[in-house]
Amino acid sequence: MTDLAALTWTDVADYARRGATLAVPVGSTEQHGPHLPMSTDTDIAVALAERLAGQVTDVVVAPAVAFGSSGEHQGFPGTLSIGQEAVELLLVELVRSATATFPRVLLVSAHGGNARPVTRAVQRLRAEGRHVLAWGPRWGGDAHAGRTETSVMLALAPHLVRLEAAQAGNTAPLRTLLPHLREAGLSAVTANGVLGDPGGANALEGRLLLQRAAAELADLVARNRRQTES
After folding, report:
1. Domains along the sequence of the chain with CATH
2. Positive or negative CA dihedral for 119, 41, 38, 67?
3. H or E stretch including 61?
4. Can you give the three-state secondary structure of 112-138, one letter per residue?
5. Cα–Cα distance, 122 to 117 (Å, whole number)
6. Which among 111, 47, 118 is positioned nearest to 79, based on CA atoms?
7. Do residues 104 and 82 make contact, with C-beta atoms less than 8 angstroms apart?
8. What pLDDT, in 10s, does the model give residues 112-145?
9. Which residues, in sequence order, are bridge partners of residue 23?
10. Considering the entire predicted model, what is its pTM?
11. How far apart are CA 139 and CA 90, in angstroms?
């Protein structure tokens, strides 16, 4: 894995000459129930970017963007949100800077609340002629801090998971909760910050989910390179 923060500028210049892709993990700092850390989305984004770099040559992993649009979680202590407009502007300026060196930039976003600002940022950047992609894992399963995210975190950082504190939250389908959630925040629909049930979560399931997502991401990057180089 090639970590941008550990490179010198001359190292970076070598990667740039080879047409390297800069992968930027985009996460959040927000509550994930009483059993998962605030860093969950960021940890997952970093892990997927690192796995990409391990599978595809000439991918450099940037330091993570650890703050996102998480206003719906503000009812729970510790959540740090910068809002959609700030996320969009941050990513636009970041990619403008990055493309002065790297011919390709990939935003690896693991927080659903960032979807709209990430999409808008990519649209603006492409309109400027910059080569930028955005991708996020499609896990399926629980919406937030349930079995899926708990399994992934058990695979990545089991020491950060407090299984003894894991409890089911609101298990209703997300589509039925969204109108009230968007209006009043997550705390209006779940007392413990969980949407789903972490029961049954396990590291093996998490490793399989990560493997599947990383393979999908690697395929996207490889296909995009072939298209742009042809």
Report:
1. 2-229 (3.40.50.10310)
2. negative
3. strand 59-61
4. HHHHHHHHHHHHHHHHCCCCEEEECCC
5. 9
6. 111
7. no
8. 999 999 999 999 999 999 999 999 999 888 889 9
9. 61, 106
10. 0.96
11. 26
